[in-house]
């Protein structure tokens, strides 16, 4: 018989700091609000491959995100893997009102019509069908089946220990 998990013996901030020891890539997820058609977008570092057949990826969103209900209701979204030169874009989509995140940016549509950034400096992008959602603690896990993707041989933007790094192994930009 399996035993239940035991309570954590460390505070949440310590756990967050420990997780920060693992460097991750940085992505921006875009779509259109299913009710209003307004652009939606946010910076996400919790992105991973799931399956090659069929091609699937996952990302997570906190339950406190204002856009959570919209992303749960969407059919499709585009995940943009940011390149090392896109720190400003990552910061822009990390906070502030949705309409300000898109102000002055050129937009495009992926092959199935999903709203995406026209920025050609992304290392890769994935147009995904929103196939599964799973509640997990204080986040929702979104699993998307990849319908279209594109990639370029560009260095990715890396997030490590609470800040961005321009290239793998370089010093972080700042230690806020």
TrEMBL record:
The keyword Oxidoreductase applies. Its EC number is 1.-.-.-. The keyword RNA-binding does not apply. Pfam families: Flavin_Reduct. SUPFAM superfamilies: FMN-binding split barrel (SSF50475). It is an enzyme of class 1 (oxidoreductase). InterPro entries: Flavin_Rdtase-like_dom (IPR002563), NADH-dep_flavin_reductase (IPR050268), Split_barrel_FMN-bd (IPR012349). Keywords: Oxidoreductase. Residues 19-166 form the Flavin reductase like domain. Signal peptide: none annotated. One of its GO terms (molecular function) is oxidoreductase activity. This is Flavin reductase family protein. It comes from Castellaniella hirudinis.
């Amino acid at each position: 018989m399996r035993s239940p998990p035991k309570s954590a013996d460390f505070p949440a901030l310590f756990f967050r700091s420990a997780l920060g020891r693992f460097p991750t890539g940085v992505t921006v997820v875009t779509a259109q609000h299913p009710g209003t058609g307004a652009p939606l977008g946010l910076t996400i570092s919790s992105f991973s491959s799931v399956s090659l057949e069929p091609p699937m990826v996952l990302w997570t969103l906190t339950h406190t995100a204002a856009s959570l209900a919209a992303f749960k209701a969407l059919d499709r979204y585009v995940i943009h893997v940011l390149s090392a030169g896109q720190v400003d874009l990552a910061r822009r989509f990390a906070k502030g009102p949705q309409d300000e995140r898109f102000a002055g940016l050129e937009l495009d549509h992926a092959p199935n019509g999903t709203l995406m950034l026209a920025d050609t400096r992304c290392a890769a992008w994935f147009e995904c069908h929103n196939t599964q959602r799973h509640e997990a603690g204080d986040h929702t896990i979104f699993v998307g089946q990849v319908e279209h993707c594109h990639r370029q041989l560009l260095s990715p933007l890396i997030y490590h220990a609470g800040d961005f790094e321009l290239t793998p192994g370089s010093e972080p930009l700042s230690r806020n």
